[in-house]
Structure formats: structure tokens, C-alpha cells
Amino acid sequence: MQSGHWIVMRRGAVLAVAVLLTAGQAAAAGVAGQVTFVKGNAETGATVAGPFQPLKRGGAVREGEFVKTGPDSRTEIKFADGSVMRLGSGTTMQLGQARPNRPGLPQEVTLSSGLVWARISKLAGGEKFAVRTHNAVAGVRGTVFQLFFARDGSTTLVVFEGEVAMANALGAFEKSAAAGKGVVVLPDGTVMEPVSVEEILAKAEEIEADWAQFNKDRDVAKDSPVEGETPPKEGAAPKEEAGLKVRDDISKLTPQEMGRKAEAALTEMRNSLRTAVELVGQARKQKDIVRLNCLNERVTQMKGVLKVAEDANVALQEASGGGDLDSVRSQYTKIAKAQERVGQLRVQAQNCVGVESYYGGDTEVVTEINPEIAGGDTFFGDSPVGSDPRAKYENNTSNPGDNTGTDTPAPPPPSSSFTD
């Protein structure tokens, strides 16, 4: 699809596991990532033109949807494999095609405008993740980085951990950047030589001044309350707290009903723990250390959450006998949240079966040519803005003799793709 000078690149579907769904149910429902932070105006829609619906923390975004943020707004999306993406102000992004073999991280996302920060779990076994813009593609198999699509049509990559490969939209003139480095792709498709993060950020006037600190704070805070949201009072019906949802409106439940549901929740949690322990036994028999470590971590967390739920159930029974309705609701809320958390850990434990795909091997980088825009792209003509952004990086041109921006870069040979 093309509109004026802008090209909307290929987009597909994405798949992950929502808190209240199993992996199979999530696949059937088309659920993508879960929203774990919202500030200001963040919305999602089925098309780039909308209609858009407000995003709320704890809610889901669905495969193929567009996510956009308004001025002074941000949001964070978490995927089932633990990967996280954060969108800065004025950003529009579409989640890409789902992975065919398991839920979790999508194959790619397309950034139409703005800024994203990403922590991507390591991938192997031929799988890959890419962030595409109008004129560039970044390919990764596990790293921490950010990508900015500026108003002048350039794309800027900054790498904080691991290594990321950057190419123009045709997959040509690829450059790899390790931690502490970055790459700029100019509007005409010229891929500059890697330079330091400090040099790039010093020239990126459009990036919000507190963006780096925001990401550091989110790494520490994780599932802290939404900015500006007042925490619920003790005993009040819970809202979307700590990234989890309580399934029932507890204001409509009697103490007896909450007691029965609490017992059922504890049974479900114990069964989930038993399943995870069985997977540990299988991994131990197979002497699979990587998988065993992954499973042991989930089992340890499950046991801790289950202990909290069991203590809360004892307190719930005592409060029910004493007629303390507020305390009953408070304890039931703890159990309901524990049930959701154990459900998440169960899915993560099941994903450990394919843990080699998340953690195996060193960081690798890949890309692919997008055939929909190869050749005849008017974008590779004159710069769409009056000033030439090449001047910012004139000492780092990666394509000698090709500084005019008037020639379309040649596609790479068939064997060229981000390889180790």
C-alpha cells in the first residue's frame, strides 16, 4: 500500500499468550502481547486509519493491530517469551506475523513513525526478529536496542546489549553494530558506518530527553502502577494491578463463594506446580542443563506464589468466620492474583521445553529482502526534506562514490543475509 511519498510495508499477524488464556486459547483468539504500562494517550486499531480504542494496562493487543501513542504518551507491551517493547511519544507500530511453532515474540514489527525500545529474548534454530521502517530493517536474535524513525526519513539504531545488523529496505549495504554503537540509515537508503551511541544521541534532537531514564526506571519498576493511577484501598474491588487481572468482581461474591473459589484456585495452582515438576524430572533424565535451569526457576517462583496463596486462604477462612467482609475480599484478591501469576509461570515452564530457541547459542543477526518494495522505489530519489541529513554523518559514509542519493542501491546477492 502506498500513500504519496510513504510506503506501508508488509505486515502480518502476531501471537502471544494473554494472562487468562492458555497458549492454545491465545492462538485461537488471536491475542498478541499484553500491555504492562500506559502513560497518556495510547490506542490500538485494526487499520492504520482506525477506528482506535484506548489501551489499558492489563489489556491485550491482537495480531495485526496497529498501536499508536499521542504526544507525551508511552506504552509497554510484553510478550510470552519475556521480550518487551516500549513505544515513545508520537509512535505508530504494527505487530507482525505470528511465529508458526509457538506463541510469544512476533517475527517482526513495522515502525511507521516514532521510537521503540526493545529487549528481545535470544533466538536460535533459524528463527529471527526484525524491526522494519520505511527505509531500513534491523535484524536480531536477542539483544537490547532502540530504533528511531525520524521526521526527515532517516532511521537510527542504538545498541545497548548484544549485536544488531542494520540494512536498507532492500537488504543492501548491511552494517552490524555491537553494544555501545549505532547505525544510521539515511532517507536515500545509504547505510552509514557504525558510530558511538553518544555521537548518535547527541545528533538525535527529536528523541525525548528523559527517554533513557524512563527505560531504566521501567526496568526496575516492571509492573508498577500506571502513572497517575491511585492504588486501590485495602479491601476494595481490585483494578488492573501488577499487570494481572482478577477474574471475578468480588463485590458481587459472598464470603462462602470466595471461599469455594479460593479452594478451586489453590487446586489449579497445585496442579500447575505438579506439571512443572514433572517437566523438571524429564529434563533431568535427558541431562538438558539449559532446560533444567529454565524450569527450576519457574518451579521456585511457583512454590513461592503458592505459599502466599495458601497463607491468604487461611486468613480468608478466619476472616469469613469472624464476619470481616473487607478482610475476606482482601485475602481473596491475593489468591486470585496468585492464580493468575502461577498460570503465567505454567505457560513459561511449558515454553522451557523449547528453551533452546530462546537462550541457545550466541547472538545472531538476520534480515531478508522485502520483495514488495524492491526496485523502482521513488523513495531512493531526492531527500523528502530540504536539508540533507547526510551532513550530520559526512565523515562516516559507508558507500563511497554513492553520496548523491540518486541511485537505487543494488540488491545483495542471493547468499547475502545477516549471517554469522
**Main beta sheet strand tally, sense and closure:** 17 strands, mixed
**What spatial form do the alpha-carbon principal axes imply?**
globular
Would you identify the regions where 5 or more consecutive residues have pLDDT less than 50? Answer: 1-29, 223-247, 354-365, 373-386, 397-420
The whole-angstrom Rg is 24 Å
Number of helices: 7
Tell me the fraction of residues in β-strands, as a range.
Answer: 15-25%
Total domain units: 2
CATH topology of the largest domain: Jelly Rolls
Helix-and-strand structural type: alpha+beta
- CATH architecture verdict of the largest domain: Sandwich
CATH class of the largest domain: Mainly Beta
How many beta-strand segments? 19
Calculate the terminal CA-CA distance, rounded to whole Å.
33 Å
Oligomer: single chain
Helix content: 25-40%
**Residue-averaged pLDDT, rounded?**
74
**How would you spell out the order of helices and strands?**
EEHEEEEEEEEEEEEEEEEEHHHHHH
